[in-house]
User: Fold peptidyl-tRNA hydrolase from Chanos chanos.
Amino acid sequence: MATTGSNVSKRLVQYVVVRSDLVHALSWPLGAVITQACHAATAAIHLNYSDPDTQEYLAELDNMHKVVLQAPDESSLSSLSNTLTEKGIAHKLWVEQPENIPTCLALKPYSKDIVQPFLRKFKLFK
Assistant:
């Protein structure tokens, strides 16, 4: 866990938001959807590798914390990505190629209190 200047610990979390309609309405195999989430999480870490929170998150490999949430469809996922971009929240929207289908997004590791206001309407992935 990270510690702030006041010696209060903060938990760094990497959030991944996956379109649930890929499994439930479009009948994608679960393994294919998990692969999309892995791609997005890896890309978000790569793009933000030099970020201090990312480095701290990676320094504690055995204590990494991820939360996987579900977006109901492409529209809600794209809307979330737009909001995060507007608010300066670093993330990677994963777009499967060559089909050009947005499937999920992953944020760089953040303290929960920074990003939870943007993620409140998304439930745990089922």
